[in-house]
Design a protein that fits this description.
Layout lengths: L1 H24 L8 H8 L4 H7 L2 H21 L10 H18 L1 H13 L6 H16 L5 H20 L1 H8 L6 H16 L2
Helix pairs in contact: 1-2, 1-4, 4-6, 4-7, 5-6, 5-7, 5-10, 7-8, 8-10
Protein name: HTH tetR-type domain-containing protein
Keywords: DNA-binding
GO molecular function, one term: DNA binding
């Protein structure tokens, strides 16, 4: 019993130390080393491989945890948007999503690319889709369930592309999506285009 508890504490210490390093390093995740993680966590070097297999899997798990907290926040925005129309709620949620992606570029890129390369039943992309689905349905109550699902999928896919391919989109459309106001205007236009409202 004591050994297992010690193991769980070590694992959590490694995760917390890694999350702090990810936040500090930003886009320079290649600078995060196992030695630095273990030093901050106060554990031996072999425990990263023991608990996570390797550094990349550890970082992936930490990023997933960080994004999960944000996705759960998305699902709880009702209090802030009580007086909003469904379209205003969807716009608000989209702006929060895009701001997070661009403000946490490195971890967001890893999260989105991981979901694309290794899709899982309840990954961050799916959880984002699930958070958007009822809002899309509320915006277009005249559509059947299949159409609502398609439009929600289109929206999530376009937002991921806005993030991953912002430089190309900027060249094609002449819009700098790194600028919050430009991003918000473009996102509103995307919503109008997809939802046809």
């Amino acid at each position: 019993m004591f050994k297992r508890r010690y193991s769980v504490d070590n694992k959590e210490a490694i995760i917390q130390a890694t999350i702090k390093l990810i936040e500090e390093k930003g886009e320079h995740l290649d600078e995060v080393t196992v030695r630095e993680i273990c030093k901050r966590a106060g554990v031996g070097l072999g425990l990263v491989n023991y608990h996570f297999g390797n550094k990349d899997q550890l970082i992936e798990q930490c990023i997933e945890r960080m994004i999960n907290g944000t996705v759960e926040h998305f699902q709880n925005i009702r209090e802030k948007t009580d007086g909003f129309t469904p379209f205003e709620k969807l716009t608000y949620l989209g702006n929060i999503t895009l701001d997070f992606l661009f403000e946490h570029y490195a971890i967001s890129k890893i999260s989105v690319l991981t979901d694309m390369q290794s899709p899982k039943e309840n990954d961050n992309t799916y959880r984002t889709y699930a958070a958007y689905l009822p809002l899309v349905a509320a915006c277009r109550p005249d559509l059947d369930e299949a159409a609502i699902r398609r439009k929600t999928l289109y929206l999530i896919t376009v937002m991921q592309q806005m993030f991953l391919r912002y430089e190309i989109i900027s060249q094609i459309l002449g819009i700098d999506l790194r600028q919050k106001e430009n991003r918000r205007n473009f996102h509103t236009q995307v919503l109008h285009d997809i939802l046809e409202v």
